[in-house]
Amino acid sequence: MVTTGQILGMILAIVIPMAAVVVLQRQIMKKLKKKGIFTCFVYGMLGYCWQMILYAFVHSWVVGFLGQYDFFKAGFGYILAMMINAIVYAFFVVLATSWCLYLANMRIREFDRGVPIGVGYAAAYIFWSYLFAYGIALFYGIQIKTGSFQGSDEIKEKIFSLSVENMYLYIADMIIFLLIMAGTLVLMSHFFTKGEKGKMILVPLLSQYVINFLDSFLPYMLPEVASSIIYHLVTGTMAVYGLWLIYGYIKSGRLELLPGRKTSEE
Fold first, then answer.
1. Which pairs count as long-range contacts for 230-236, CB under 8 Å and 24+ apart, including other chains?
2. Spacing of C-alpha 81 from chain mean position
3. Angle at the Cα of 9 (from 5 to 13), degrees rounded to 5?
4. How confident is residue 143, by pLDDT bands cut at 50, 70 and 90?
5. SS3 content of the chain, % helix, strand, coil (to 5)
6. 135 Cβ partners below 8 Å, 6+ apart?
7. Model-level pTM?
8. What three-state secondary structure class fits 216?
9. What is the mean pLDDT of the chain?
């Protein structure tokens, strides 16, 4: 039987992360009070959408290509395959975020435009992830709860087995991603407006490579609990740094890359 806790968890899995998006975007618009800020938010959403569509095709080709060789199926070869997949994903993140920045700054180059792009990008990620993780499950869960479900027993069993604890962990992951991407675009926009395009590219390339690689590598090498703890320590640290960048700029209008090193963006 689908429990009330499962239904509530699936609802909160979209409500809480999207509420965080709305609150952060409102704070940004309240701080900046400039035209085009919401448009930048939309650019971020569009950037994520076309990136994932293209990445899905390329990823399937890469997996199929590597799968032809036994070397990539175990041991070091399998780890190397993870590294290749991670760099491909990071490459597409670089393409999407750079496209958003260039599009948002076509008429006037402003550091401020990077912040809402990151929030919009994360919003699209959260919604996309939710649909695959819990959106359909919530739809079926409500049907089961009300007695109107007409699907297979296999789907029922999958819904019944959903863990409430994993739902709340999912919420934490979505908020972590929001802070990481908003912070990433803060840094990218800073380097973009300064003309340091190499550093601009390195920020998402390195951060997304590390996240994607660890997501595959740690469960392969370590027990589930240990891999989850290490993964969340890494991503949590990145999220805290992202929050620091965002809060510092919203509060003072200045970017502090490292403690004691404030950079004027005016």
1. 232/172, 232/173, 232/176, 234/210, 235/173, 235/176, 235/177, 235/180, 235/211, 236/176
2. 22
3. 175
4. confident
5. 85, 5, 15
6. 14
7. 0.88
8. helix
9. 86
Residue pair 145/11 in contact (Cβ under 8 Å)? The answer is no
Where b means 16+ CB within 10 Å and e means fewer, 83-122 reads ebbbebbbbbbbbbbbbbbeebbeeeebbbbbbbbbbbbb
Return the closest-CA partner of residue 44 out of 96, 95, 88: 96
> How far, in Å, CA of 127 to CA of 132, rounded?
9
- Locus of tokens 């080709």: 61
Write the pLDDT tens digit of every residue in 209-229.
Answer: 999 999 999 998 889 889 999
Contacts of 175 (CB under 8 A, 6+ apart): 16, 17, 20, 239
Q: Give the tens place of pLDDT for each residue, 156-171.
A: 788 877 888 888 889 9
SS3 call for 254: strand
User: CB neighbours (10 Å) of residue 264?
Assistant: 9
CB 174, CB 126: distance < 8 Å = yes
In the numeric block, the tokens 């089961």 are attached to 144
For residue 36, the 8-state DSSP code is T
Confidence of residue 258 (pLDDT cuts 50, 70, 90): low
CA-angle at 145, arms to 140 and 148, nearest 5°: 70
Which pLDDT belongs to residue 126? 92
The candidate with the shortest Cα–Cα distance to 25, out of 116, 127, 123, 122, is 116
SS3 261: strand
Query: 188: closest CA among 128, 117, 253, 139?
Result: 117
